Amino acid sequence: MSEKPARLVTLAELRAAQERLRGVVVHTPLVAFEMPGEPVALWVKAEGLQPIGSFKLRGAFNKVAQLSARERACGVITYSSGNHAQGVAYAARAVGAKAVIVMPCNAPQVKVNATQALGAEIVTVGPTTGERKAKAEELAAAFGYVIIPPYDDRDIIAGQGSCGLEIVADRPTVDLVLVPVGGGGLLSGVAAAVKLTRPGARVIGVEPELAADAAESFKTGRIVALTGDQSQTAADGLRSQSVGVLNFAHMQAFVDDIVTVTEAEIREAMRRTIFATRLVPEPSGAVAVAAALFHREQLPRVRETVAIMTGGNVEAALLRSVLEG
């Protein structure tokens, strides 16, 4: 018996999420990335300017805002290396709910500190996605917390998709949107938003070579889970061991391709973005720009490209080393 096809997020859901987020998230600007002599106009979607320094507030708030009074009273829990953690903590504080966050032992300290500052209780586990997901489920069963998934959830996807609606509204002639991909929440939502409002535009996911499960999944047509240590990549926000089931369905329906970038390219993209735009990306936030700069031969020939800079929560020591070359 064949599996029932996944029900994809609709344009109505995307627009409802955008309305729900109005006044909470920032409609972030598209900042020009000057590339003298190049025929392509490159714009950077500056999601690092969100209140928590990352796009993750979009999905987290869209999910938490729809909880019932009883669910809010139970409190919420999630598992995250940092940016989704901050999004859930921020949203929970806004609605008066307790937030518990399961974080890996190798999460950047800047993200741990920011999550604690938002009033969340932090539980630390090992470095893998499976470890933190299992702990969150254990605590939810024991204490009745409501789980706020980081990406494999339609409300999360719809919230992240509001970013795509903004891109098309601000650049109606956009030809190509480059989107970082870890678990696939942002790529799912943005691809749906772009394809449902500007069908002719291309949407391509970008991830580190050292955590290339999404690229392998897209190529083979089935979800591939990595079994190695993805913590080798500096892009901590993209260390998921596999994309989500609902996310993969959206990728198959709306995404044109997925490309990978090297660690050296990520660092150089960070450096160039800082000097070209005065925006400061974290490694995960620089992968889309890295693709635009160093993988033109893998991308379609277009006139207008938007690269999403997903976040700017970067450790001071890493930023210093990038700037020093």
Structure keywords:
alpha/beta, 4-stranded parallel beta sheet, 6-stranded mixed beta sheet
Give structural notes.
The chain is globular, with a radius of gyration of 18 Å. It is built from 13 helices and ten strands. By secondary structure, it is of the alpha/beta class. The mean pLDDT is 94. Strands 1-2-10-7-8-9 form a six-stranded mixed β-sheet, sandwiched between helices. It starts with 10 loop residues before the first helix and ends with a helix.
> Uncertain segments of ≥5 residues (pLDDT<50)?
none
Radius of gyration, whole Å = 18 Å
Instruction: Give the overall silhouette.
Output: globular
The largest sheet has its strands arranged as: 1-2-10-7-8-9
Say how many strands there are: 10
The number of helices is: 13
How would you sum up this structure in a few lines?
It contains 13 helices and ten strands. It is α/β, with parallel strands linked by helices and 325 residues long.
What's the SSE blueprint?
Layout: H1 11-21, E1 30-33, E2 41-46, H2 56-64, H3 69-74, E3 76-79, H4 83-95, E4 99-104, H5 109-117, E5 121-125, H6 129-143, E6 146-147, H7 154-170, E7 176-180, H8 185-197, E8 202-208, H9 213-220, H10 245-254, E9 257-261, H11 263-277, H12 283-294, E10 304-309, H13 316-324
Parallel strand pairs: 2-10, 3-4, 3-6, 4-5, 7-8, 7-10, 8-9
Antiparallel strand pairs: 1-2
Helix pairs in contact: 1-7, 2-4, 2-7, 4-5, 7-8, 8-10, 11-12
